[in-house]
Design brief:
Structural class: alpha/beta
Helix content: 40-55%
Number of helices: 6
Number of strands: 5
Largest sheet: 5 strands, parallel
Distance between the termini: 35 Å
Order of helices and strands: HHEHEHEEHEH
């Protein structure tokens, strides 16, 4: 959520850094598809020709919802190597002499542990890009118009910008008492989540449309289910998690009454 807590920082046992293998597995599963899409659809030739610098082109990548740890670094390395490969092919075909300098913007909420993220960067002489942090919600503008060549967002966009208000309105048919998710809930609850997601995607894509350079790309990697599917492995896990949280709340209330 736009105003919720960021992922657990640091490098301890409960940190995101130590508990994000599932997200890495998703990227590994999709990386070949991402590479193929970049090689086929990224209009790198036009981007090079539009550069005001005759000797070097600044190519800008933004990781939206980067969190901390090696996943974002792995993804940026993969994107850069793919762009370099395409640039090499263009250079051989057209005697293109322009070299590329890469700028990577790491974006996440203001509470994100950017210190741990930047401490994990490869040494400056070993990495192929300039790095900078951009705090703020990606549900809105983050960058100047036509300034980003690739906007990358992995395992982040499924977080809604806010809780649908009907879920906590006791008079609403979408009141979702005793749950933290839509699995097993009424159609009204599912609809409230779906409506919020549609609004958020509209805001996200409208912002990126302003920021992306002509010929650039948006790469989104996120979990999903078939249309109409409301029961799935993640939902079942969240149902158990919700039950545990309810038990914890009841236990706290019981002890407060005893005191």
């Amino acid at each position: 959520m736009a105003q919720s807590s960021a992922m657990n920082g640091g490098d301890g046992i409960y940190s995101y850094l130590k508990n994000s293998n599932l997200q890495r597995d998703g990227l590994n599963a999709a990386k070949n598809v991402i590479k193929e899409a970049l090689l086929e659809s990224l209009d790198l030739k036009t981007l090079l020709l539009s550069s005001p610098n005759s000797t070097a082109t600044t190519f800008t990548i933004a990781d939206l919802g980067c969190s901390v740890g090696q996943n974002t670094l792995f993804a940026m390395k993969m994107l850069i190597e793919t762009v370099e490969h395409k640039h090499h092919n263009i250079s051989q075909e057209n005697s293109e002499k322009n070299r590329i300098e890469f700028q990577v913007f790491f974006n996440d909420q203001t509470a994100n542990d950017f210190n741990t993220l930047f401490a994990s960067l490869p040494p400056q002489h070993e990495r192929k890009y300039f790095a900078a942090g951009v705090p703020g919600s990606f549900y809105g503008r983050l960058f100047p118009s036509s300034s980003i060549h690739i906007a990358y967002c992995s395992s982040s966009l499924h977080w809604l910008s806010e809780l649908p208000v009907d879920l906590v309105d006791i008079n609403s048919p979408a009141y979702n008492s005793g749950r933290i998710h839509y699995t097993g809930a009424s159609d009204a609850v599912v609809g409230a989540y779906a409506d919020q997601f549609e609004k958020d995607m509209q805001v996200f894509l409208t912002a990126r449309a302003e920021e992306i350079v002509g010929g650039g790309m948006v790469v989104i990697l996120m979990p999903g289910v078939p249309d109409g599917g409301v029961t799935h492995d993640v939902g079942i896990a969240l149902t158990f998690l919700g039950s545990i949280l309810m038990d914890m709340v009841e236990e706290v209330c019981y002890y407060e009454l005893m005191i």
